[in-house]
Design goal:
single chain, alpha+beta, ten-stranded mixed β-sheet, 12 helices, 35% helix, Acetyl-CoA C-acyltransferase, Thiolase_C, Thiolase_N, EC 2.3.1.16
Length: 385
């Protein structure tokens, strides 16, 4: 049985919808992440025994097993297989889990968990040809399945979260992300060629959606999206940005990696996936966190770095109310409200950011947790080595 360790973790800069990565196909984004990953790690791609790719909207340019297409475009040997999975927003975090489990089982010596999503080129719900109305009618009769934005509003009601609370967390996300980008902290980011609004190419080294400053008055003037004005608090400003990007994490057996001269960066203390209420649907991060901490044998106070995906500000605030963490350790370099949430790419992207953050700060223990549509969540506890 092997001991899975993280050897390298990278992501592309995340681009805005219709922004700098608008002309870059998702399979090319994935190829850039995969190629950059093995180059940084100093590993011959022929040594990789499997590539597990997370992608939510598997249609069009993201169809036909985009993981395998990205592997071929990255120039990996044809002997390297790949599979594409969909656990919605937790897809590439789950891909990393599966890679680690393959190593632990002795089925592979090196594996990659990765993810990709171009929400510009392959819009959400295009895999089912529309929205909720395309789901099984019996399921819609038996379950109250609602838009995640409405779930975020119900979370605000249950935990008594105000518009001011949500906007303040969002502004802080931008402030932290801008500071990290300005100071060049995001070592996990691979430089990529993007296009400016006029179509001129430039070297993209930071996430496109980050705002250097947030005007509180402008933030408070944004209209609610999912409920009439005055009846809700969720706006475009306190929700994650629709984005494009890719990410990849190299996992290997510790003994084999060390024998090959590679330095392990972190080991896994817990890997968790849970189901939860499909109507509230975004609250699964609460039981997922509790289970991950229990399996890892640590408390929330033992953690040095926490990544909670900022799908909506209300989700993070409800989680914080239940877990009572040190908020200085939660998304220290900002979150998806600032840098964006390219669905299938976010999980491995947050993992890459957390590994880089632990290395930069000398921290030891990190938690990553993500809410998932239809009421699920994924969580990982890692220990820096």
């Amino acid at each position: 049985m092997g001991e899975p360790v993280i050897l390298e973790a990278v992501r592309t800069p995340f681009g805005r919808r219709d922004g700098a990565l608008r002309e870059t196909r998702p399979d090319e984004l994935l190829a850039a992440a995969l190629g950059g990953l093995v180059e940084r790690a100093g590993l011959d791609p022929a040594r990789v025994e499997d590539v597990i790719c997370g992608c939510v909207t598997q249609a069009g340019e993201q169809g036909a097993n985009v993981g395998r297409l990205g592997v071929m475009l990255a120039g990996f040997p044809v002997q390297v297989p790949a599979v594409t999975l969909n656990r919605m927003c937790g897809s590439s975090q789950q891909a990393v889990h599966f890679a680690a489990q393959a190593i632990a089982a002795g089925d592979a010596g090196y594996a990659i968990g990765c993810g990709v999503e171009s929400m510009t080129r392959v819009p959400m719900f295009s895999d089912i040809g529309g929205g909720f109305e395309r789901l099984n009618p019996r399921l819609l009769r038996e379950r109250e399945l609602i838009h995640q934005g409405e779930s975020a509003e119900r979370i605000a009601e249950r935990w008594k979260i105000t518009r001011e609370d949500a906007d303040a967390l969002s502004a802080e996300s931008h402030r932290r992300a801008a500071e990290a980008a300005r100071e060049g902290r995001n070592a996990e980011i691979l430089a990529l060629t993007g296009l400016d609004p006029e179509g001129r190419p430039y070297e993209m080294r930071r996430d496109e959606g980050i705002r250097e400053s947030v005007d509180p008055q402008k933030m408070s003037s944004l209209k609610t999206v999912f409920r009439p004005e005055g009846e809700g608090i969720v706006t475009a400003g306190n929700s994650s940005q629709i984005s494009d990007g890719a990410s990849a994490v190299l996992v290997g057996d510790r003994a084999r990696a060390e024998a090959d001269g590679l330095r392990p960066k972190a080991r896994f203390r817990a890997r968790v996936a849970v189901g939860d209420d499909p109507t509230m649907q975004l609250t699964g991060i609460i039981p997922a966190t509790r289970l991950a901490l229990k399996r890892a044998g640590v408390s929330i106070r033992d953690l040095d770095w926490i990544e909670v995906n900022e799908a909506f500000a209300t989700v993070v605030l409800a989680w914080a109310a239940e877990l009572e963490p040190d908020m200085e350790k939660v998304n220290p370099w900002g979150g998806a409200i600032a840098h964006g949430h390219p669905l299938g790419a976010t999980g491995a992207g947050l993992m890459a950011k957390m590994v880089a953050g632990l290395e930069a700060t000398g921290g030891q223990l990190g938690l990553q947790v993500m809410c998932i549509g239809h009421g699920m969540a994924t969580a990982t506890v890692i220990e820096r080595l």
